[in-house]
């Protein structure tokens, strides 16, 4: 969820106002009770992960006392560099596709192709379907379907270059490294290339793969590609990782202006040798597997989602071109209006890797009136700065890996006393809170697998602050629901909305869902589209049907009354946050 940081139309409370809020007496929760609530809520998937990481271990990461997973991978690459460089190309080279399902501007694929072409051997593409990874990472069913359909298109694109794409399902996620090495041996490949992912599981898996490969004479090369500027490259004046977007973005722009090659676009891989189709004939005949049973869509869902979300690299490039030629000039003014066609709708392609953020920014730079990323056409400048959030959140994830372990970025926010009200959480998920903009957003997501970004912020704030439901439950639900689920961006957006993440709105600022509705959907077109119970209501009453004289119509059509009163909820949130921040961390 890419959060826009302009907090317009919120109840902006001040720090002074928050200080005046009375703390409830005798309500403080003990650390052991908080841990029990977290365990009972199912926040930690115990099938794949240990209990919640301790506060002390988070602080050890902050104090640089233990290695981060990205440092473990970098150590593995450095320690094996001499061994890997000494390994000679054998009879093929393999590229392992993950979240980079494209042929162009794919760093590892380009390097693999160069290596194969230089030695006159075939390039083989590999993708492993991991049902357990889909489950552990809460990958939505609609996103799994999008990935598998994208693989079909990618397989066809590569086949035109006589490059096979081998796709196999590996049931046990722990067996992925050994299976990859087995396939390399089968195909007589001594070189494997892959692009780096920045989540904890993936970094540790690749570190293991690099070392295991070196032991048996296979050079495993893991390269930076997803981020335009690799994590760790941008530092504050005292050499620390940025935790606030604005100074990070200034450093990002300055770096790219002085290192323009970082926006260089790699071409598609070269044509394979003519004998490839004969030698690796079975690989060209491999079918894309069906979705795992736990992630399969029914026939109606397949029809609906596939009509909404065409796949493939060409589709992504065409969508980008259409946006840059027809809508980007108005992006700054329309990006926050959910009823308008004002955004690029590329988030699903960024998440699956059918287009890169680097390609997007380079293309925007080409049509801008200035070669500078922070000058020229306002809409283009704004859009580039929004795309860059994806890099920022991945930089955060790499440096503070415990955000990938169900922990708040800010340790002091661990102690907030959340509610675990199942009825209210279910009402929020179903779009039946009695707040029209919140309900419209949730219903859009249920119907399409997508939600407008401004509305994502509103519904997230409503869950975390109006309902005081643990924001991590909402974070997980978005991943299970949305087609564009990207861990770093989703976690960053929820951290912003709950005030528990990097660069957040202060805790005493609380979105007023009615004011947000009036500002960003003034005519109510978005609400009427997704909340048909309210389509007969005219004027401003659409934003608050039970408070502006439209209650008879709303009630007759079955629209629920508000499940919480906003003023009460706001004061409760201020009290809980103040209470949680005022005591020692557990």
TrEMBL record:
Residues 1-37 are annotated as: Disordered. It holds the Pfam family FAD_binding_7. Residues 16-37 have a biased composition (Basic and acidic residues). The record marks 418, 471, 494 as: Electron transfer via tryptophanyl radical. Keywords: Chromophore, FAD, Flavoprotein. Its cofactor is FAD; (6R)-5,10-methylene-5,6,7,8-tetrahydrofolate. The keyword Magnesium does not apply. InterPro entries: Crypto/Photolyase_FAD-like_sf, Crypto/Photolyase_N_sf, Cryptochr/Photolyase_FAD-bd, Cryptochrome/DNA_photolyase_1, DNA_photolyase_1_CS_C, DNA_photolyase_N, Rossmann-like_a/b/a_fold. It comes from the Eukaryota. GO terms for biological process: circadian regulation of gene expression; entrainment of circadian clock by photoperiod; nucleobase-containing compound metabolic process; response to stress. FAD binds at residues 331, 343-347, 383, 386-393, 484-486. GO terms for cellular component: cytoplasm; nucleus. Binds 1 FAD per subunit. Residues 91-228 form the Photolyase/cryptochrome alpha/beta domain. One of its GO terms (molecular function) is DNA binding. Belongs to the DNA photolyase class-1 family. PANTHER family: CRYPTOCHROME (PTHR11455), SI:CH1073-390K14.1 (PTHR11455:SF18). This is Photolyase/cryptochrome alpha/beta domain-containing protein.
């Amino acid at each position: 969820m890419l959060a826009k940081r302009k907090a317009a139309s919120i109840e902006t409370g001040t720090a002074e106002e928050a200080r005046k809020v009375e703390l409830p007496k005798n309500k403080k929760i003990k650390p052991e009770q908080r841990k029990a609530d977290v365990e009972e809520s199912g926040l930690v998937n115990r099938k794949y992960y240990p209990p919640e990481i301790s506060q002390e271990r988070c602080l050890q990461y902050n104090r640089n006392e233990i290695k981060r997973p990205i440092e473990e991978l970098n150590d593995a690459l450095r320690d094996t560099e001499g061994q890997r460089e000494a390994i000679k190309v054998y009879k093929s080279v393999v590229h392992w596709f993950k979240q980079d399902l494209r042929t162009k501007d794919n760093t590892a694929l380009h390097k693999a192709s160069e290596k194969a072409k230089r030695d006159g051997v075939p390039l083989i593409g590999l993708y492993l379907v991991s049902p357990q990874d889909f489950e552990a990472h809460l990958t939505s069913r609609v996103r799994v379907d999008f990935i598998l359909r994208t693989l079909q298109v990618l397989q066809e694109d590569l086949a035109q270059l006589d490059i096979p794409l081998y796709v196999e399902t590996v049931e046990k996620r722990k067996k992925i490294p050994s299976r990859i090495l087995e396939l390399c041996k089968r195909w007589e490949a001594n070189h494997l290339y892959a692009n780096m992912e920045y989540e904890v599981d993936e970094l540790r898996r690749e570190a293991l793969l690099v070392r295991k490969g070196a032991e048996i004479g296979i050079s495993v090369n893991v390269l930076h590609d997803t981020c335009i500027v690799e994590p760790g490259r941008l530092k504050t004046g005292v050499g620390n990782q940025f935790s606030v977007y604005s100074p990070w973005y200034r450093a990002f722009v300055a770096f790219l202006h002085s290192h323009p090659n970082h926006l260089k676009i790699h071409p598609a891989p070269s044509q394979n040798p003519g004998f490839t189709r004969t030698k690796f004939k079975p690989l060209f005949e491999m079918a894309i597997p069906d979705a795992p049973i736990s992630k399969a869509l029914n026939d109606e869902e397949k029809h609906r989602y596939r009509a909404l979300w065409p796949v493939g690299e060409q589709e992504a490039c065409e969508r980008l071109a259409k946006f840059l030629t027809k809508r980007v000039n108005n992006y700054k003014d329309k990006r926050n209006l959910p009823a308008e066609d004002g955004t690029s709708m590329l988030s699903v392609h960024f998440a699956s890797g059918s287009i890169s953020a680097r390609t997007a920014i380079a293309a925007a730079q080409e049509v801008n009136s200035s070669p500078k990323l922070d000058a020229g056409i306002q809409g283009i400048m704004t859009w580039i700065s929004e795309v860059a959030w994806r890099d920022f959140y991945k930089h955060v994830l790499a440096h503070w890996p415990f955000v990938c372990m169900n922990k708040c970025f800010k340790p002091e926010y661990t102690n907030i006393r959340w509610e675990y009200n199942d009825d209210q959480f279910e009402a929020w998920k179903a779009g039946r809170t009695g707040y029209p903009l919140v309900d419209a957003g949730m219903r859009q997501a249920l119907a399409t697998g997508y939600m407008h970004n401004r509305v994502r912020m509103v519904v997230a704030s409503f869950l975390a602050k109006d309902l005081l439901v643990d924001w991590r439950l909402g974070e997980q639900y978005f991943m299970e629901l949305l087609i564009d689920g990207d861990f770093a961006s989703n976690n960053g957006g929820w951290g912003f909305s709950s005030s528990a993440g990097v660069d957040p709105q202060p805790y005493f600022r609380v979105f007023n869902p009615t004011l947000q509705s009036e500002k960003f959907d003034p005519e109510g077109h978005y609400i009427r589209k997704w909340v048909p119970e309210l389509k007969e209501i005219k004027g401003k009453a659409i934003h608050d049907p039970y408070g502006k004289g439209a209650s008879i119509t709303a009630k007759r059509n079955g629209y629920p009354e508000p499940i919480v009163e906003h003023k009460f909820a706001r004061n409760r949130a201020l009290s809980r946050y103040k209470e949680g921040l005022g005591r020692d961390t557990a």
